[in-house]
């Protein structure tokens, strides 16, 4: 697995990094048991939202084209009069994460949505309780999410029939992969932000639960703004100006090898190691162990060394992370530009876990120069 110097990233073969692509949540058409999902089993109820069960339409799409992203957070009133007209919010950790009650996302006015984009940029992630996103027609949920950017269609995930813009996270009832997985792995932690190999990765992103285990299957988020801030000025300076290759090849190969679909030819893209948020102006680390393979211009050992440090820095940052628990009706909204996350594969009682993601794409990552801290 020799490293490959990337001149024209869109056409390159896979570039494998120090940590291979790790797929803790192996799913796909071959593992899907429609009968149990629709009718239940001795121990498990049928799926609560059968119209959200995954299908794998083999339709192939052309490469994504650049588009101009409009960042609605820039238009927001920073006092949030529309978003929190009736609701309440409280921080779950100082640097990241809030819990919101009394706000119905699907009913927000455009001004409320603008404020939502800003609020999420500031808090990185928030969990909204008692939402109706799962209960309204799928097209209405997509119309709501489409305000925040162009819908991303995933290369390999399951989709509700007829709605390729919805990315499904699905582990079926009576699935035993968790037990099998831990015969060869010690943990299921896979820090990443979503599809960062795209030229314009997602921004304000939505994930809502349809079914889940009574305990387990939490999601942990980490602030990449705080991960950047924790570094010394000298180290920050060195990271500025560097670019890294983010690769979608392994994800596509992984799907193909287990009989899944590949809807677009995989790509790899160079992004800055430090990106600036278009609304807050905050700088954030922009690397993740799942998709970032190599730092451009460094030799392999140097790149591996630096990436391993950064991945460990993020993974160890329990003091800039928040762990979110799913409840019926929960919607988690995060800013994929400034937060990474990992799922947790810690339940093995055969309970179904079924979530839907709406994934609006945002601007091409850019960086602004290093600034001395005041
Ligand atoms: Fe993810």
Automatic annotation (TrEMBL):
| Biological source species | Phyllosticta citribraziliensis
Q: Which SUPFAM superfamilies match?
A: Clavaminate synthase-like
Cofactors named for this entry? Fe(2+)
Q: Does the keyword Zinc apply?
A: no
Q: What InterPro entries does the record tag this protein with? A: AtsK-like, TauD-like_sf, TauD/TfdA-like
Keyword Aminoacyl-tRNA synthetase assigned? no
Designated name of the protein: TauD/TfdA-like domain-containing protein
**Coiled-coil ranges per the record?**
none
Keyword field: Dioxygenase, Iron, Metal-binding, Oxidoreductase
Describe the family membership recorded for this protein in Swiss-Prot or TrEMBL.
Belongs to the TfdA dioxygenase family.
